[in-house]
Amino acid sequence: MNLFWAKGFESTSLSDLKSTLGGLSSASFYAAFGSKKALYEECLAEYMGTCGELVATLRDESLSAREALRAMLWRSIEIQTSRDSPLGCMAVLSGIVCDDDNADVAELARNARKVNRDAIADCIARGVANGELADDGSAEAFTLTLDSFLKGLAVQSRDGISREALLRSADQLLSILDR
Predict the structure, then answer these.
(1) What distance lies between CA 45 and its chain's CA centroid?
(2) How many other CB atoms sit within 10 Å of the CB of residue 17?
(3) What is the number of other CB atoms lying within 10 angstroms of the CB of residue 66?
(4) Angle, to 10 degrees, between the axis of helix 36-49 and the axis of helix 26-33?
(5) Any residues with CB less than 8 A from the CB of 97 and at least 6 apart, and which?
(6) Would you call 95 helix, strand, or coil by DSSP?
(7) Cα-atom radius of gyration of the chain, to the nearest Å?
(8) pLDDT bucket at 179, cuts 50 / 70 / 90
(9) Does the predicted TM-score (pTM) go above 0.85?
């Protein structure tokens, strides 16, 4: 997972994978995983279920919508700036640029990113329905703003922007809700 996360799908070679997996032969690799794409799909699913568990935070109804959005952004920043894993977000960085032969890989990554965008939209809709967030017709725009910020964290993290600066930026963005 970390190899795809750090290098992206297309830049990760079969040789890289075999070496990382303890020097497997090509035959053993294909017997175990079927293909590089199949392994990537497993890794992306694992990422979304662990590092990318942001959806659970957004769906946590014990939190207000505002609290859930803040917790999601802060957790994402924590993950994306951690020295325990590659910087950035695997769902954003690993499958964003793929040639035509790997269009299905790009689609897997796009679908993973859509899961987060949909969860943000649902959280905002919950906040509007509960009267916590303004029902001023801006829910769709705010969803895209938050989602764009979330995806932009992957690049900012890779560029070395500090965790503290990103947390301040997230809080500044969420201050829109106070207007």
Answers:
(1) 11
(2) 17
(3) 16
(4) 50
(5) 8, 10, 106
(6) coil
(7) 18
(8) low
(9) yes
